[in-house]
Amino acid sequence: MYRPHTTCRACGYAFHGAGGNRNPNEKLVSVFNLGVQPLANDFCKSGQERQGYAPLEVLFCEKCRLAQLSVVVKPEVLYKNYAYVTSDSETMRKHFAALVSDLTAEQPAGPVVEIGSNNGALLKHLRAEGFINSVGIEPAENLAREANADGVLTINDYLDSESAAKAKADCGGKVSFVLARHCFCHADSWVKMIDGFEALADKDTLIAIEVPYLPDQIANVSFDQCYHEHLSYLSLSAMAALLEDSVLRMHKVIKYPIHGGCVLIMLRPLNSGRDPHPSVEQFMGQENITADTWREFAAEAHAQIHKLGLLIKSLRDAGKTVCGYGASAKSTVWVNACKFSRKDISFITDTTKGKWHTTSPGTDIPITDPGALLRELPDYCILFAWNFASEILAKESLYREKGGKFIIPVPHIKIV
Length: 416
Ligand code: TMP
Ligand code: ZN
Description:
14 helices
């Protein structure tokens, strides 16, 4: 189901001990280890076979500062039938509006190819904003089917030069924008990914890659963003190392608050005739992430895991009931790191229908519809979807009026 990955995905340096070091003094070092963990989105109904477990360990490249997992779980296992659906939340709609405004500030709306287009939510939004001729490339069969049925043209594939050529043709032969939201760091082969970008782009194409902003992830100690799908934890210096041999360069960097802090890294071909925006240098200068930064993050993460474990134990000992909110990949990481079971957390609610009547990966905790919060009125609710905190706290004001309390685990465990 998985295999070790011991060379740096961005610059090619090798894990010490493995063959093929370009320079034996440079190496990948282990900086964070959660042990063997279940696959984060492996939500299964009773009788369905679980996909299983794999080591969850982060290695850091001292040469280019890329952090990446020590193993790669087969993509067919993770994505053939993918449970994660882009949320139709107010927070997400605001984010899409900001993206449209920043993309069209660069150049007029035009044909767009979205990589990892999920259920087509962003492409639908873009279409309404005048981006006609759009095509998605989405590896999950269930999501590509759903998007096509919904009228969003979607190729069921991974990005490589072949799927890129097909998407470009479907777009009418010229692509103005290539978007890749939260899929770049899911890809094992960045060579294929860059080949795909190069096949899609001509000199006027803008490529926009949205990834978590690593300094925010570190500052928030959001270790719950470390799971098997997130193969890489991308710094801008690692991006620069990756692009060195390609015809693409960073053009502009824009930061957004979504998902606890993200950046949109815009790329343009070397022959675009446009100078890079000063934001590239600014963001590169601001991030100073070393192996020690990661080691401190790891120590703090283990302290937070210990703290939440103790808090829930003390609440349960006092006879209080506890549930969870948002059966996201993040909830799987927390639940298993804290070794929670149904005795600790009675259920986790989620808006995604496909997750109802499943259990949380690695545990017996049932996933329910969001209505369970008011029906059951547990004393405490752990907000695993902390990245939507303000929207959810407002939406669930009745629960709070009835005495329910939220435990927000990130950036630091807090009861509201
Ligand atoms: P994400 O942080 O990976 O996008 O996952 C958020 C999860 O939380 C996702 O499974 C949907 C769920 N969710 C709710 O249950 N209620 C909500 O109001 C929102 C915004 C998300
Ligand atoms: Zn490297």
